[in-house]
Design goal:
This protein is an alpha/beta fold and 249 residues long. The protein has one domain (5-248): Phosphoenolpyruvate-binding domains (TIM Barrel), CATH 3.20.20. It is 45% helix and 17% strand. The protein has 12 helices and 8 strands. The chain has helices at 5-8, 23-30, 48-60, 74-82, 96-106, 128-137, 148-152, 154-158, 170-176, 186-201, 215-223, 234-248, and strands spanning 13-18, 36-40, 64-68, 87-90, 140-145, 165-168, 205-210, 228-233. The chain starts with a helix and ends with a helix.
């Protein structure tokens, strides 16, 4: 299995988001050069069976398959890990306690509390011993910082052993501040500076999701020091590509 060396070495990890369940979408994006791809279960209609198929395609393309789960839920995290995900992105992590739960849900005892089963991740039983060793310190665990409470508890969240990095959810974060979508609001900019300073002090891997497929914004985000970057998502890239030519006509 692909390990998380890319994340441990604090190198640029460039990926994208998948919200459409068709296997061709995952195959095309996996072959385009991304380091990782995240199957989004929070804001899509992708089923767990479809997620497993997408994970398989991404992994066979030697790209890191991650899953953004719907919530910090033991049953769902167990199922996507058993399906072969190499890690999870978890929304609304607002405290160190929330972060510790993720570790428990991803890891087998004694480190965690995840139930042991034989599925695709364990090669249906034939690779259980190998997987048991892999899951000790290789799964990628990214927390989403998307509530002002998470900002208040940011240092404590990043201090939890096993958390690889974070990704900011700007829409939810501004909404929790009472300024939904106001990304130029001084209150939001102050919070972003606070996040950036704390993550730099703690040498944490910072993440950002660039929604619109804008290469200039990607360059700016890299220059701002973010390492875990989600460049757009399947539906926005499809829409953008279609309109790019048509708008000229």
């Amino acid at each position: 299995m692909i390990n998380r060396k890319l994340f441990k070495d604090n190198k640029l990890a460039l990926g994208s988001w998948i919200t459409m369940a068709h296997p061709a979408v995952a195959e095309i994006m996996a072959n385009s050069g991304f380091d990782w791809l995240a199957v989004d279960l929070e804001h899509s209609v992708i089923t767990i069976r479809e997620a497993e198929e997408l994970i398989r395609i991404i992994e066979l393309s030697n790209v890191i398959p991650l899953v953004r789960v719907t919530s910090n839920n033991a049953d769902l995290i167990k199922r996507v890990m058993d399906a072969g995900a190499h890690g999870v992105i978890v929304p609304m992590v607002n405290s160190a306690s929330d972060a510790k739960k993720i570790i428990e849900f991803v890891k087998y005892p004694p480190r965690g509390k995840r139930g042991v089963g034989l599925a695709r991740a364990q090669k249906y039983g034939a690779g259980f011993d190998e997987y048991k060793e892999w899951q000790i310190d290789q799964p990628v665990i990214i927390v989403q910082i998307e509530h002002i409470d998470a900002v208040h508890n940011f240092k404590e969240i990043l201090s939890v052993p096993g958390i690889d990095g974070f990704i900011i959810g700007p829409y939810d974060l501004t909404s929790s501040m009472g300024i939904p979508g106001e990304f130029s609001n001084p209150k939001f900019l102050k919070v972003m500076d606070q996040i950036k300073q704390i993550s730099a002090d703690m040498k944490a891997i910072g993440g950002m999701h660039i929604i619109e497929p804008d290469p200039d914004e990607l360059v700016k985000t890299i220059e701002d020091g973010y390492k875990f970057i989600a460049y757009s998502l399947d539906i926005r890239m499809l829409d953008h590509s279609c309109k790019l030519a048509l708008n000229k006509i």
